[in-house]
Amino acid sequence: MTIQELNSRLDSILKDVPDKEFDKICLMEDLCGITREMLATHPEKELTEAAANSAVKGARRRAAGYPLQYILGSWEFYGRRFKVGDGVLIPRPDTETLIDETVSRLGKDFHGGILDLCSGSGCIAVTLAKELEESSVYAVELSSEAFPYLVENVRANGADVKLLKGDVMNGSLLENFRISGSAQDEDGEYLDIGCIVSNPPYLTDKEMDKLQKEVTFEPELALYGGSDGLKFYRVIACLWKELLAKDGLMIFETGTEQAEDVKKILSDSGFTDIFTANDATGGVRVVGGYLKDQ
Ligand SMILES: C[S@@+](CC[C@H](N)C(=O)[O-])C[C@H]1O[C@@H](n2cnc3c(N)ncnc32)[C@H](O)[C@@H]1O
């Protein structure tokens, strides 16, 4: 099959996919190494059977609603590549707002501990470890399917992140950290946890009932936040604040309708100077606050 023939074949398979042109180019580029330029300048070039089959198979899966990111096997977040696939949430552009806000609030020379709860692919933990080079980042994830992606993404990005597999809803996990705003690193040194960051599962019952087709392929464990979508915020704010150093920052990604509820949860848990930040579409996407009296 030539490049041009593959192009026509993918056009026909993807005809009902909303972003078909973008998806086609990604499939051709990532699965066959064909760039836009090659398509324009060498349409007659023959492809190996394996390369053509891989793109055709990928396009068929895409046409059936399977997420493009899972087919490609990796996705970009904050300028870095993250391996993704069945069992792990695909990093979203909205989550870059959480990174921007965390980095700007902590400052580039922040050298305390950062705890990323519900870490998934590790996009938050890895990005913060790379952007805030003096910090010590810890990541906690429960899912046995997601955890290997976390391990691999930390390794592939050369990030210094300490990993913990466990349930953030279970208080006994806190015993892995010293209660009093510190955590022990590999050398037995105690570090201040100056920031707890989380993008927890936050979809409500109603939202789970009307998921976009692609999202139904992502793990329910990564999406469902209890009937009102708020159960993780309640537990994290109330339980995990014990680890925060004085003046420590707790910062969450939220659904666009959840900001007021999460502000109240933080304030009821003793946080002050509560703030929000908007994503690129103008909706509130980040809520955080500081723990002054610790
Ligand atoms: C919304 S996803 C966020 C993933 C990643 N931080 C991101 O921003 O793309 C939530 C993550 O929390 C994990 N999770 C769900 N329940 C958990 C629990 N009780 N303890 C720890 N992690 C949990 C899920 O497996 C999933 O990876």
What does this structure look like?
This protein is α/β, with parallel strands linked by helices. The protein folds into 2 domains: 62 residues; 204 residues, Rossmann fold, CATH 3.40.50. 37% of the residues lie in helices and 21% in strands. It has 12 helices and 10 strands. Strands 3, 4, 5, 6, 7, 8, 9 and 10 form an 8-stranded mixed β-sheet that branches. It has a two-stranded antiparallel sheet with strand order 1-2. Helix 1 packs parallel to helix 4, helix 2 packs antiparallel against helix 4 and helix 6 packs parallel to helix 7. The longest helix is centred in the N-terminal third of the chain and has 15 residues. The site of S-adenosylmethionine has 22 residues, from helix 7, strand 4 and helix 10.
Could you write a compact summary of the structure shown?
39% of the residues are buried.
